[in-house]
């Protein structure tokens, strides 16, 4: 930039010289001597420097030039005190890095704009009853009743909720795993999004379901269209094959569109949409007879959520009257509404994210306080420099501009560095973020994140340069100039100001550290929960199986049994088992509800039973080491032709068979039938285990044995068609076993090649990933805060010692002992720590209540944690002040006095 | 500070007319700063001595407005100098200025020359 100004200036200079030269030449041609001519020309021209200056002013970039000057001075002065600049930049960068990383997570999870029209008026409608809101949707007949009777909604659409299950779409690039959601014809209209190519589904009637003609029509998402069909513009009308069935592509949705919106609902797979065509069973009113759909309504303008809910609640009891079972009426006789945007993120996750965001903001504030304290010290030292500037004619505004420029420069550099730190933090937590929040991108430099970064930079710059600027505008020039050394004449008030900053830092750090301590205790507690099974030395493969290829064959004998036998023969493998889902896994969950038979009291009680359902191999007990409480586990004698058997757990007995003093009495009970004329008996009771979540106690569970499941069994489709896990126990290192296992699976069937692998330890850790993530983030935030705050104490005390060198020298000369001098400094540290800890305890009490949803096994105000954390801070603070105190005690009186 | 402000005030007074005079002079052909001063002096019968402190800011301003453009050239006296010439936009501006000026002269003249009716 500078050279541009220089060139312009040189040109003006030359122009003026040419003017003079021409004048001189003219005068000489009129007969004047050279000397006369030059003098005359000069006097005619007037003050050349002034002309230059005035012309200069008329240039447009005059302001810009002054800005560049300020920038140059600021850069020069910051470079001259490089140590100071680096300290300030690093301090601020820590704060910006943490906050920026957290903000980009919050932005990715909570602030994403939904790609729908007016997403605020989209409402999820769920039936509710004595068991609370039902999570598995409502039958079409109920949804249709709402549509007909309700005035609050302009439209109600519905869609199938089995979107987690993979479909296999064949295309030019091979077979692709997609999530295929069945949607009603009015859904896209309700969302206000229309296909970019082709058309949407045609509605059969006002009810919104799709015409039977469209049953084999398919809508593609933009991602699928591009990845699988090379963005073929003539795709509409072509036939594609999905799950072995032919579909005609009728359209492609716009690029940003995705529904259901969260990656969690689709296991991160790209989407296609099938037509939701009603079948005969949609008219059933028996228990579990009709398929269930998630319902989404759009509120009419001006209708509130509460009004709409009240309206539906009025006629819902009437709607459920047509159910044939009383129990079905009881659990669905009311309505619960929530905004679609709120349904996307779990309330607990939202709270946890905001708590972490708050923590990072605290760290940023601490960093700013620390930097402000440093800037303040520097401003005092530089008072003379600024006074000289203003004595030489710099206006107050110019000095303010210059100081702000310094602040902006420091803060800007810090933000750049912070951005790098943020990217690093996100990289570090990649696995946790993906497992918890399905965030796949690393640092997204999108508009909100950049906006936040800019805001942090500007506010940071203002915060750190506010005090020096204020001091500069207030300072009177002559007093500053008259003072001999820059160390003299510091008012007590100014020291107190810095001390207040340090106290605030201590208080805020304590808050962060208490939060960190609480989460570490939570993690400790979670890690020591007795799970009820062994987790070490187990590899887990999650397999996605194209079950349509095995239509008409028994997958149990054709696919699964040979695979297990093969894997068992791998070197180092002790045992292997199949199971629909490992304990604490999150990919698949099935809840089994029992069909009541007859009207006896016993039958009614059974009708209320509900259990986690798992189909497992007989080797499961050896692999996981479950304890049997009563009876036996499955064994090789349980086959497709033997007596059907089930195993339940202790929680099941406790919940449905009264007290568990004698859990054995359930043995031999006939709970479920595997198929027509094939009733089962209970042969064993498992001891309690944590199968849903580490923090939740054991849930009622029922297990069936995989070799006993034939295609005629009622669980066949549910248990084997969707997802199957293979758990392998091996004494060898799991990193060695995993590739061999992968190879074995690939050899068994190419369909297994898309399996994902994990270890059981990792599955357990991921199951409390929310806490884990929060704990690790708080470790970083809390650790940084502690360091910053100790640096703040150290910095202030060192400065005070340097200031009071002469006074200390006099004291020592007059006979003060080393201890007296040290206690002088330590007293200062003492009151700062005391005040900081006092305020911090109050803040921590308020602040950590935000963490309540994350805590397990420890209370928000846990006195032990608070004591230990305070002690750490106290010891650290005293250690940080011992160094300057010692330096004070070692002041050489003669030297200190000679400096006077 | 004070001095510079005073200087500027005088420039301010001349501004409107000075711009017009410069543009008018340049209609005769390209000229350098010194040439413009000389031309104005001769044409005014030595009555008008344009201050360089007003001339150069005015020239640079006019150039920024796009009414004149400049080029470095060798003068007759073999001195490299910056020659200014009027642009099409400048000509249009000059025509407008002139008509406004004439209007103003007419109005002022009408008022100033009128004999008081007693």
- Give the helix tally of chain A: 30
Dominant shape of chain B? elongated
Provide the helix percentage of chain B: 55-70%
Supply Rg of chain B: 17 Å
The CATH architecture of chain B can be given as: Orthogonal Bundle
Q: Secondary-structure map with pairings?
A:
The complex is a heterodimer of chains A (900) and B (118).
Chain A: H1 2-29, H2 34-45, H3 48-57, H4 62-80, H5 82-109, E1 122-128, E2 138-139, H6 140-149, E3 153-160, E4 166-171, E5 174-183, H7 187-191, E6 197-198, E7 217-220, H8 222-229, E8 239-242, E9 245-252, E10 271-275, E11 292-299, H9 305-319, H10 326-330, E12 334-339, H11 340-344, H12 347-381, H13 383-391, H14 396-428, H15 430-437, H16 447-474, H17 477-482, H18 492-527, E13 538-544, H19 555-568, E14 573-579, E15 591-593, H20 601-607, E16 610-616, H21 620-624, E17 628-631, E18 644-649, H22 650-656, E19 673-675, E20 678-686, E21 701-705, H23 716-720, E22 723-730, H24 734-748, E23 756-759, H25 760-767, H26 769-803, H27 805-813, H28 818-848, H29 863-889, H30 893-898
Parallel strand pairs in A: 5-10, 7-9, 16-21, 18-20
Antiparallel strand pairs in A: 1-11, 1-12, 2-11, 3-11, 4-5, 4-8, 6-9, 7-10, 8-9, 13-22, 13-23, 14-22, 15-16, 17-20, 18-21, 19-20
Helix pairs in contact in A: 1-2, 4-14, 5-12, 5-14, 5-16, 6-9, 12-16, 12-18, 12-26, 14-16, 15-26, 18-26, 18-28, 18-29, 19-24, 26-28, 26-29, 28-29
Chain B: H1 2-26, E1 31-32, H2 33-43, H3 52-65, E2 68-74, E3 80-86, H4 88-113
Antiparallel strand pairs in B: 1-3, 2-3
């Amino acid at each position: 930039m500078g050279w541009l100004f220089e060139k312009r200036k040189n040109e003006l200079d030359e122009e003026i010289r040419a003017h003079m030269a021409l004048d001189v030449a003219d005068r000489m041609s009129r007969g004047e001597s050279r000397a006369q001519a030059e003098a005359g020309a000069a006097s005619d021209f007037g003050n050349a420097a002034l002309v230059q200056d005035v012309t200069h002013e008329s240039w447009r970039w005059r302001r810009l030039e002054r800005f560049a000057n300020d920038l140059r001075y600021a850069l020069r002065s910051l470079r001259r005190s490089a140590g100071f600049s680096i300290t300030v930049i690093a301090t601020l960068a820590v704060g910006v890095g943490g906050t920026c990383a957290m903000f980009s997570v919050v932005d990715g999870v909570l602030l994403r704009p939904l790609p729908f029209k007016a997403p605020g008026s989209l409402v999820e409608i769920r039936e509710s009853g004595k068991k609370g809101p039902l999570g598995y949707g409502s039958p079409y007949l109920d949804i249709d009743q709402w549509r007909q009777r309700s005035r609050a909604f302009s439209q109600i659409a519905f869609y199938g909720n089995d979107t987690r299950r993979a479909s296999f779409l064949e295309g030019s690039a091979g077979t692709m795993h997609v999530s295929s959601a069945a949607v009603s014809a009015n859904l896209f209209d309700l969302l206000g999004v229309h296909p970019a190519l082709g058309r949407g589904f045609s509605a059969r009637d006002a009810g919104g379901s799709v015409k039977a003609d469209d049953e084999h029509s398919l809508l593609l998402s933009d991602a699928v269209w591009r990845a699988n069909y090379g963005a073929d513009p003539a795709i509409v009308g072509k036939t594609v094959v999905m799950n072995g069935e032919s579909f005609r592509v009728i359209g492609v949705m716009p690029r940003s569109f995705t529904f259901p919106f969260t990656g969690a609902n689709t296991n991160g797979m790209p989407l296609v949409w099938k037509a939701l065509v009603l079948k005969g069973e949609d008219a059933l009113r028996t228990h579990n007879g009709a398929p269930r759909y998630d319902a989404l309504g759009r509120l009419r303008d001006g209708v509130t959520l509460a009004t709409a809910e009240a309206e539906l609640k009025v006629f819902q009891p009437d709607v459920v009257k047509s159910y044939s079972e009383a129990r079905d009426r009881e659990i669905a006789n009311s309505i619960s509404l929530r905004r679609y945007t709120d349904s996307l993120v779990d309330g607990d996750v939202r709270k946890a994210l905001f708590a972490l965001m708050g923590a990072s903001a605290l760290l940023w504030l601490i960093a700013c306080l620390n930097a402000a304290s440093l800037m303040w010290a520097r401003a005092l030292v530089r008072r003379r420099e600024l006074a000289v500037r203003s004595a030489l004619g710099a206006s107050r505004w110019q000095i303010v501009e210059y100081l702000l420029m310094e602040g902006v420069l420091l803060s800007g550099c810090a933000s750049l560095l912070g951005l790098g730190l943020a990217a690093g933090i996100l990289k570090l937590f990649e696995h946790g973020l993906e497992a918890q929040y399905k965030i796949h991108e690393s640092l997204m430099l999108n508009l909100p994140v950049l906006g936040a970064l800019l805001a942090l930079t500007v506010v940071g710059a203002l915060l750190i340069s506010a005090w020096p600027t204020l001091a500069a505008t207030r300072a009177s020039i002559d007093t500053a100039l008259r003072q001999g050394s820059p160390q003299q004449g510091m008012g007590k008030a100014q020291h107190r100001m810095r001390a207040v900053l340090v106290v605030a830092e201590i208080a805020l750090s304590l808050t962060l550290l208490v939060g960190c301590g609480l989460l570490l205790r939570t993690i400790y507690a979670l890690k020591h929960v007795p799970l009820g099974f062994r987790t070490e030395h187990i590899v887990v493969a999650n397999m996605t199986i194209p079950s349509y290829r095995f239509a008409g064959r028994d997958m149990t004998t054709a696919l699964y049994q040979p695979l297990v036998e093969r894997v068992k023969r791998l070197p180092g493998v002790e045992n292997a088992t199949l199971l629909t889902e490992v304990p604490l896994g999150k990919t698949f969950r099935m809840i089994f509800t029992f069909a009541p038979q007859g009207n006896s009291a016993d039958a009614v009680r059974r009708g209320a039973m509900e259990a986690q359902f798992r189909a497992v191999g007989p080797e499961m007990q050896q692999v996981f080491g479950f304890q049997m409480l009563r009876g036996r586990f499955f064994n090789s004698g349980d086959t497709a032709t033997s007596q059907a058997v089930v195993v339940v757990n202790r929680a099941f007995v406790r919940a449905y068979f009264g007290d568990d003093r004698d859990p054995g009495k359930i043995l031999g009970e006939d709970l479920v039938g595997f198929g027509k004329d094939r009733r089962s008996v209970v042969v064993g009771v498992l001891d309690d285990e944590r199968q849903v979540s580490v923090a939740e106690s054991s849930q009622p569970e029922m297990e069936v044995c995989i070799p006993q499941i034939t295609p005629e069994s009622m669980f066949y489709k549910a248990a084997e068609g969707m997802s199957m896990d293979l758990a392998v126990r091996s004494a060898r290192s799991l990193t060695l076993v995993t590739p061999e296992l992968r190879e074995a699976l690939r050899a068994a069937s190419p369909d297994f090649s898309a399996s994902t692998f994990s270890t059981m330890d990792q599955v357990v850790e991921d199951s409390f990933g929310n806490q884990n993530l929060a704990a690790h983030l708080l470790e970083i935030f809390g650790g940084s805060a502690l360091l910053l705050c100790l640096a703040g104490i150290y910095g202030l005390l060192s400065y005070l010692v340097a200031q009071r060198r002469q006074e200390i020298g006099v004291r020592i000369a007059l006979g003060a002992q080393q201890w007296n001098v040290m206690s002088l400094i330590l007293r200062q540290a003492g009151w700062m720590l005391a005040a900081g800890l006092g305020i911090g305890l109050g803040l921590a009490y308020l602040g950590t209540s935000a963490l309540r949803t994350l805590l397990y096994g420890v209370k928000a105000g846990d006195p032990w944690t608070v004591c230990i954390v305070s002690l750490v801070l106290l010891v650290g603070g005293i250690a940080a002040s011992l160094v300057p105190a010692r330096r004070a005690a070692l002041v050489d009186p003669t030297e200190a006095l000679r400096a006077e | 500070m004070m001095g510079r402000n005073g200087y500027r005030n005088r420039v301010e007074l001349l501004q409107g007319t000075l711009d017009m005079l410069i543009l008018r002079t340049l209609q005769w052909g390209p000229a350098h700063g010194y040439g413009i001063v000389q031309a104005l002096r001769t044409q005014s019968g030595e009555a008008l001595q344009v201050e360089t402190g007003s001339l150069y800011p005015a020239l640079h301003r006019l150039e920024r407005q796009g009414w004149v453009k400049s080029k470095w050239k060798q003068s007759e006296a073999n001195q490299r100098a910056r020659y200014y010439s009027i642009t099409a936009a400048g000509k249009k501006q000059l025509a407008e200025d002139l008509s406004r000026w004439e209007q103003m002269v007419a109005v002022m003249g009408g008022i100033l020359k009128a004999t008081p009716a007693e």
